[in-house]
Amino acid sequence: MKYYTGIGSRETPDDILKLMTKIAKYLYHLDYTLRSGGADGADTAFEIGAGEKKKIYLPWRRFNNSDVPFVKIPDEAYKIAAQFHPVWDRLKEYSKHFHARNAMQILGENLNEPTDFVICWTKKGKITGGTGQALRIAIAYDIPIFNLAINKDKQRILQKL
Q1: Rounded (5°) CA angle 134-63-111
Q2: Which domain holds residue 149?
Q3: Which of 11, 38, 104, 123 is deepest in the core (most CB within 10 A)?
Q4: Which helix (H) or strand (E) holds 134?
Q5: Distance (Å, rounded) from C-alpha 82 to C-alpha 45?
Q6: What's the domain count of the chain?
Q7: φ, ψ for residue 127 (rounded to 5)?
Q8: Lowest-confidence segment of 3-7, 75-79, 125-129 by average pLDDT
């Protein structure tokens, strides 16, 4: 199976959200399955375009009123998340659920099937926030990242569409 991870800031600009939905529709026809996290903004934009070809990893059941099947976050995902978060020990428990589910977005449900690539948007193209956690994991696993806030990445994606 072919996977991509579609993620980004809840503050993603509207034009980029529309582009994310278009990208997801394009990848749907190439038989890619989306991995994302059910958050507002970028996650939702990708999910809209992905149709039924999606694996949405929620931090807890019914997060954001989602009705997608909940997949329990394995203990190993918390261990991976702790390796890549700079202040893991200072996080509140609910925040740890978000970051652990990010490991699943990149490595899959059983943490043994890395995504083929990541498409995202982060403010100024920086590795920041929850998206940054997923990006740090992707970098460690040599997974290509296309950040739509970085013009050359955006242009490479637009050429494909």
Answers
A1: 35
A2: 2-160
A3: 104
A4: helix 129-140
A5: 28
A6: 1
A7: -90, 100
A8: 125-129
